[in-house]
Design goal:
The chain is mostly helical. The strands form six sheets. Strands 1-2 form a two-stranded antiparallel ribbon. It contains 20 helices and twelve strands. The longest helix is centred in the first third of the chain and has 26 residues, at 146-171. The radius of gyration is 25 Å and the shape is globular. The two termini are 36 Å apart. It has a domain at 2-58 and 113-300: Serine Threonine Protein Phosphatase 5, Tetratricopeptide repeat.
């Protein structure tokens, strides 16, 4: 029973599955009371399938990308604390709070004793679903509309792929388990064997191909449910992630057959050969898959229009590009492939807007601001750019890429104008001096992606603004990057897509002018993505990455990009900065508000001007501050450690870790509480 505990503690096995799922079913499902439901009575009807899969979309009451069991579900806004997957951009060079993440201080992140991402709960529930319904479907035994039945089976494949992609990003090599397992020690031990990460990625693509064959783009419920286009985009995302991971982590133990790869020490992986015959063959395979899937979307779906208007009253024209992220129902926008829907009446509301309305102690970084191009397509440091400087936050928007103008909230702008008699404006002097977790901003550059202009959305627990989960613009970006990585030049499709994105952003569409004026030593100061493997990339690839950073800002994808690009090797005391607090804007603050270099550092409210003219949120106080000396990174931190519990449970005697079929990720020990070794 010891080995059964290893897996079954994370599994939903056959008996009782109906009870577990039906307890959380869609309100529209009319079924036998859960206590009376058995597998023999369940998953025979279209409505059963629809209810089962939607259970594994997300937990509306508590979702966290870092959650061991829920992190692999489709993300969402959630909860009364304003939580959101959009905040995954925090603790990168894009955005920050007044602190950072332990991953940037080697030694602080340690191996857990229990738990972690080695978790199969949702995977096993989805395996049960697929191994039950697919044979029934093939035998014509499921009642209901055949197209809908096919769609819900496709959702099962999509959701399993989504779960596996999460485990791939976090852990790399991972067991591929497609069936629920019996209480058999030998079977469970074998199921623990980690497959090389490229094979896990191939398995994910296979699941997504099955999903694509079955899914509809107009399911019951519309784009609130998984769509075929969403599956195509996820396929492109997975393929690009794996291709670039393999390319930039090549020559390290984080890639199968790399020097020191721990998988080689296990007999079941000994002598491993790549399906394509070589590592480069694998990279090319995934790049081809990314290009094919992304171009199918990009060729078919146009970008939403952007009239460049920062709307501040009902009399001004609506900006569809802005509103696409800031409405309860973005289904009318073709670019949106899938979104999350909320309802106060059903207890599915959140507080995302309530918190960013006040700042939520978050903000975009000075480094993010510097990365955005001018409308003429030139970098801010170019003498001909026309950059108005950053003495004042408002100045950074002048003649700028409209994505910065629209999605960063500056002093003096209207906070909301719908459902409010006397609209408020953002403060002239942003509250950068307070440690209040709600009424402050960490940098002065306030977050604005998904920010609603309806005051009703700012009320605590009443926000039903819908986050966009998948949108077509990402497909444009994926093709641009994958084709350049594969071919080394901008082909006709990439050229078309790049010009479309820049035109929508209000930036000169001639990206070649930007490339020719790019100075990588300047970009390196503010963009971690200027690097791979500790070396600067070429100007064209960098500008493709810059375009991705600018277009997807505030949507929570930055850290995953940095991981796959291996773009943090060079971090060696990097200091995140905010607005230019010690320039002329200091005069906007009352005397005694901006305090630095106080005899008792606990009285400091901002960082010292002797350090920088720019606010440094990690250098306000030094005592008990792990990030005062800046951000560092170590190779092991590109993957997460596996908890010691899993080695012990799967070992031959419950004690000897070396007999476990599981191997630890590179650089991490198998001792709880210890940090990475390299």
């Amino acid at each position: 029973m010891r080995r059964l505990k290893y897996i079954s503690t994370k599994i939903t096995l056959a008996l009782g599955i109906g009870t577990l799922i039906l307890a959380s079913c869609d309100d529209q499902l009319d079924v036998t009371p859960p206590s009376d439901v058995t597998p023999e009575k369940y998953l025979w009807e279209e409505s059963h399938l629809a209810a089962y899969t939607i259970k594994y979309y997300a937990d509306y009451t508590w979702y966290n990308e870092g959650s061991d069991d829920k992190g692999g579900m489709i993300p969402s806004h959630y909860g009364s604390g304003g939580e959101s997957f959009y905040f995954n951009d925090l603790a990168t060079d894009n955005a920050t709070t007044r602190g950072s993440n332990n991953r940037y201080v080697p030694g602080l992140w340690t191996v857990p004793a229990t738990g972690g991402k080695w978790n199969f709960s949702n995977i096993y529930a989805l395996n049960y679903y697929l191994e039950t319904v697919v044979p029934r479907y093939e035998d014509g035994e499921i009642n209901g509309n055949s197209a809908n039945v096919e769609h819900y089976i496709g959702e099962g494949y999509f959701l399993r792929a989504h779960e596996y992609f999460y485990r791939l990003r976090k852990l790399g090599d991972f067991p591929i388990v497609t069936k629920t397992l019996p209480d058999d020690q030998e079977v469970l031990t074998e199921a623990s064997q980690r497959r090389p990460r490229n094979e896990v990625a191939r398995f994910i693509l296979e699941d997504l191909d099955k999903a694509i064959d079955l899914l509809s783009n107009s399911p019951e419920g519309g784009k609130v449910r998984i769509t075929r286009n969403a599956a195509l985009l996820l396929k492109a995302r997975v393929a690009l992630f794996e291709a670039t991971w393999l390319k930039y982590h090549a020559g390290t133990p984080l890639v199968p057959n790399g020097p020191g790869w721990p998988g080689a020490d296990k007999e079941y992986n000994n002598g491993y050969t790549f399906p394509s015959g070589s590592l480069q063959g694998e990279i090319d395979f995934f790049l081809d898959e990314a290009m094919e899937a992304s171009s199918e979307i990009a060729d078919a779906i146009p970008l939403v229009s952007n009239n460049q208007v920062i709307q501040e009253s009902a009399s001004q024209p609506v900006n569809d590009y802005y509103n696409m992220f800031a409405t309860p129902d973005p289904s009318a926008y073709p670019e949106v492939l899938m979104f999350r829907q909320y309802s106060v009446d059903q207890g599915r509301a959140h507080s995302y807007n309530h918190y960013i309305y006040y700042g939520a102690q978050k903000g975009y970084t000075h480094q993010m601001e510097q990365s955005f191009l001018m409308a003429n397509g030139l970098p801010v440091y170019d003498p001909a750019s026309g950059y108005s400087g950053d003495d004042y936050i408002q100045d950074t928007k002048v003649d700028r890429d409209s994505r910065w103008r629209l999605f960063m909230k500056a002093p003096g702008e209207v906070k909301a104008f719908e459902n409010i008699e006397n609209p408020e404006t953002f403060e002239t002097a942003p509250m950068v001096y307070s440690s209040d977790g709600k009424y402050s901003t960490s940098t002065g550059y306030m977050l604005g992606k998904g920010y609603a202009l309806d005051y009703d959305m700012q009320i605590l627990g009443q926000d039903i603004t819908a986050p966009v989960i998948f949108r077509a613009a990402e497909a444009y970006l994926i093709y641009m990057e994958a084709s350049y990585e594969k071919n080394g030049y901008i082909d006709a499709k990439a050229d078309q897509y790049w010009r479309a994105i820049r035109t929508r952003a209000g930036v000169n569409e001639d990206y070649t002018a930007t490339i020719s004026h790019t100075v990588m030593s300047e970009e390196a100061k503010n963009d971690w993505g200027a690097y791979s493997q500790g070396q600067l990339v070429d100007e064209t690839l960098y500008n493709i990455r810059r375009e991705r950073r600018s277009e997807l800002v505030g949507e929570g994808q930055r850290y995953n990009d940095l991981l796959r690009w291996r773009a943090m090797d060079q971090l060696d005391g990097f200091q995140i900065e905010g607005c230019k607090i010690w320039g002329p804007m200091r005069n906007d603050y009352e005397e005694g508000i901006l305090l630095a270099d106080q005899p008792d550092e606990k009285d400091n409210t901002v960082s010292s001007p002797t350090l920088s003219d720019y606010l440094r949120p990690y250098q306000i106080v030094q005592t008990n501050n792990n990030f005062y000396d800046g951000l560092y990174f170590t190779e092991a931190h590109y993957l997460e450690p596996i908890a010691v519990q899993h080695f012990l449970i799967s070992s031959e005697d419950g004690q000897t870790i070396s007999t476990s079929p599981i191997y630890q990720n590179p650089g991490w020990p198998t001792v709880a509480g210890q940090g990475a070794e390299y």
